[in-house]
Amino acid sequence: MATVTLGGNAIHTNGELPKVGSKLTDFQLVKDDLSVVSLQNFAGKKLVLNIFPSIDTGTCATSVRQFNQKAAALENTVVLCISRDLPFAQKRFCGAEGIENVVTLSDFKDGSFGKTNGLEIIDGPLAGLHSRVVIVTDENGAITHTEQVTEIANEPNYELALQAL
């Protein structure tokens, strides 16, 4: 279990993030067109997983915008923005913001992605949502970087994540 804060108040996740050097566990997540994708859909690509509680909060929206801007210049890399928001909300946000360089994915069905990767918030006002995390993998699915943002209201370290590619 990891401890993070929300507005300075301690909350906890259901486990620890996967270790650098380990393989990212396969997943089943829903795209904004309601199709289901897995890790296999991104085979051979480097991945930046931008994981957050909800796209409808200021910091989460900022992280999607930042990674969208930075992703345009990345070769053989896909940025996945993952939350428990409904795919409709993710699509609305990206359409309104002109977001085109990231793939939004929803874990709304059962939260299994968050549970499997130790990032589900288990107490406090955001219980059941994902904590703010960045996971980077190489083209073989090996994890090269993780960041559990210690204060949920703070942005991740974008540059450190991109350096891990």
Q: Please state how the strands of the largest beta sheet are arranged side by side.
A: 7-6-5-8-9
Terminal-residue CA separation: 27 Å
Helices and strands, in order, run as EEEEEHEHEHEEH
Uncertain regions spanning at least 5 consecutive residues: none
Number of helices: 4
Radius of gyration: 14 Å
What is the overall shape? globular
Quaternary state, please? single chain
Structural class: alpha/beta
Portion of residues in helices? 10-25%
Tell me about the largest β-sheet: 5 strands, mixed
Whole-number mean pLDDT = 91
Q: Report the β-strand fraction as a percent range.
A: 25-35%
Number of strands: 9
Topology (SSEs and partners):
Blueprint: E1 3-6, E2 9-12, E3 28-30, E4 36-38, E5 46-51, H1 58-71, E6 77-83, H2 87-97, E7 102-106, H3 112-116, E8 133-137, E9 143-148, H4 158-163
Parallel strand pairs: 5-6, 6-7
Antiparallel strand pairs: 1-2, 3-4, 5-8, 8-9
Give your account of this protein's structure:
Helices cover 22% and strands 26% of the residues. The relative contact order is 0.26. It has a five-stranded mixed beta sheet. The protein has a two-stranded antiparallel ribbon with strand order 1-2. Strands 3-4 form a two-stranded antiparallel ribbon. It is built from four helices and nine strands, in the order βββββαβαβαββα. The chain has helices at 58-71, 87-97, 112-116, 158-163, and strands spanning 3-6, 9-12, 28-30, 36-38, 46-51, 77-83, 102-106, 133-137, 143-148. β6 (77-83), α2 (87-97) and β7 form a beta-alpha-beta unit. The chain has 165 residues and is of the alpha/beta class. The chain starts with a strand and ends with a helix.
